[in-house]
Design a protein that fits this description.
7 helices; 8 strands; L-fuculose-1-phosphate Aldolase; 8-stranded mixed beta sheet; homotetramer; alpha+beta; globular; 231 residues
Amino acid sequence: MLEELKEEVVQANLELTKQGLVKYTWGNASAIDRESGLFVIKPSGVDYETMKASDMVVVDLKGNVVEGDLNPSSDTPTHAVLYEHYPEIGGIAHTHSTWATIWAQAGLDVPAMGTTHADTFYGPVPCARFLTQEEIDRGYEAETGKVIIETFEERGLDVLAVPGVLLHGHAPFTWGKDVKSAVMNSVVLEEISKMNLFARELNHFAQELPQRILDKHYLRKHGENAYYGQK
Amino acid sequence: MLEELKEEVVQANLELTKQGLVKYTWGNASAIDRESGLFVIKPSGVDYETMKASDMVVVDLKGNVVEGDLNPSSDTPTHAVLYEHYPEIGGIAHTHSTWATIWAQAGLDVPAMGTTHADTFYGPVPCARFLTQEEIDRGYEAETGKVIIETFEERGLDVLAVPGVLLHGHAPFTWGKDVKSAVMNSVVLEEISKMNLFARELNHFAQELPQRILDKHYLRKHGENAYYGQK
Amino acid sequence: MLEELKEEVVQANLELTKQGLVKYTWGNASAIDRESGLFVIKPSGVDYETMKASDMVVVDLKGNVVEGDLNPSSDTPTHAVLYEHYPEIGGIAHTHSTWATIWAQAGLDVPAMGTTHADTFYGPVPCARFLTQEEIDRGYEAETGKVIIETFEERGLDVLAVPGVLLHGHAPFTWGKDVKSAVMNSVVLEEISKMNLFARELNHFAQELPQRILDKHYLRKHGENAYYGQK
Amino acid sequence: MLEELKEEVVQANLELTKQGLVKYTWGNASAIDRESGLFVIKPSGVDYETMKASDMVVVDLKGNVVEGDLNPSSDTPTHAVLYEHYPEIGGIAHTHSTWATIWAQAGLDVPAMGTTHADTFYGPVPCARFLTQEEIDRGYEAETGKVIIETFEERGLDVLAVPGVLLHGHAPFTWGKDVKSAVMNSVVLEEISKMNLFARELNHFAQELPQRILDKHYLRKHGENAYYGQK
């Protein structure tokens, strides 16, 4: 079942490695089929070099395995919670990519300092809080999803306009309309995390991108009047 | 038309990727044929892996497409404005390369700290100001070109002696007598941006290169009495 | 003798190079056969490009060569002391990998700042003290092993829960149940050394990972109730 | 003439590129035949991808071309001055490698902070002063060699024990008993330049390697009682 989606998901996982965002088995990408309400995710702890489409696991929105011989990624409940809450999301990626993880470990939002940021993220990428002991006991991975939702709701953020988050002390999650764009958003987040760190180091008084430039760049690529690329 | 120039332009765009200056479609290079007053530029948002010479777009100095099935780069008006104002320029490159973009985001000129800089740039690489709301409304990309010209005129700079600029909050543009040297200047700017950042971090009191060494290095490679390379 | 182990050891040494942890001959990995009490180690100063299983040297726990035409790694006595003292260790790796060496040169423990750290190291990675003149005179390499043991004993650390150490002014050693995991622990230590340095640079007040998150991540991968990966 | 040496020199130049120390034509390596008093050096500004042994230029100690169709490296007089003054040197390499150049631009000696440094350089790598206007006028490249000699003499340094130097605002030169070790010393200098910069950034109070460890590491690889590698 969902053979095409499995192929997309395995390609997305391999792309994470190819882009240098994932070492060993430290990452996972998934995609959902909204019609059936099932999503396809990478198995847990399996070598990227031998991973193939048929190793992908099919899971329902409660996190139950529907098809597959291998255990799904240990982060599966996080994916399930996000897919259930945000019907506009089609794919999710999780990595421990170096520079985004550095911001997560610093416990700071990634501010919008340049147009490379604004082309993809319409404002700062938020850093979500540490989980409490109670949340960890209740179920670490599902509660991680809930803390992401809490962060976006408290700040009133549109989940597709800001398609990523940092988890304090952990690492980033990104998403998109499909798994390919979720992976691309991981690549962008990694690059802007590096750029913005050193921009601040170089000039401690460097300002965030003025709102007018943020608007211009985000909106020339996204929204009704976008004119970037081929139509 | 302009088949040879199209080949040069596609090679220059691929070189930007090969040199690690461009991720995805975040860059563009162009070259002008001064006889016809037409220039050749990369199409917008097209994958580098499949891009070929026949995908290149031919544009006039008003930015109108003269030949080509694809939309030209969204930055085409910036190229057009620069080609029109500076007849000595034969090629232009634009990237979001990491270290040059960091200086752009910091809003600082790249000072001439070493001979690697002096071999190519005869003095600091200027950082141009943010555009105003009025300029954005009038036409973001063309006005970007005008702000570059404003920066060079205010400082009395020779556009071939300092063949590049940073745009505050955005990224670099470089140019040269042809598109190959424009790309090479992007590579140099990226490298010196990295070196100069860390030289200042290592020694906050590090001085700029003395004028006499700047002169020596620039002039042994450029100008009448140059003696570097093969003649 | 120990042909399989030699193959494992040569592969582990090559993996150190492939992962970018070793330049030239600056590293070594070994594995022990507990039944015979003999270990297999890389020869000293031999080129990785031509190194093969039959070049590996078999050594006893006193550091005497039992089989092999080449001199064993000059660090062999360090390996011998560790294998003798810690029967739970099956493999050891030593590199001068850039970021871990930077912490060693700074003379600082690598604090547990994130879950990438917690997935492998159950707490800070300690930095052992410089050797004294007396220790150097007595035998630099064997005494290095003893200083590692001293460090772990003074702090009451479990050698498999914290499978690595920094030597002040020198570089890291890592270990594991076998040589493959020793190498993997070197890769993790390198990555967290980089992340943790820049997390602290980005936010000088960044806190260490709360104990509850450290516990959760370490224990979901290790110990009785681990649920990461395939069983 | 000197066909074998030409082959060594072309390989050394290619190794500089392969090791990531040289972009475009920004580097040069040479080797001397002490019997004839002639040395072989890379031509100036020639592409590394097409460079072959027969392109190498043979030069005498006054810097006069003895054989070769191409202009020798513009830095040839620096090599000549060093070969003439130091009969123990067999090969020289010059690069603008990123991290060593950063120290040169910062105008600082690279302190001995770790054993990676001590394995190759027996003490700090000195940074030589800027040339004066008079020196530049007299002959920039030959005077560069003289300033290197001045630096070593003022500090009483053994040129083979400290086989490299930084030129303030410029970049490193390294040397060795042959051109292969000159290149290797460039690689080591680049690596320790990176490590030492970040060790100091991580811990501003990080101390230099104690003399006893510096002695131990340098002397276990060099000198009469060396025991590293295969004999």
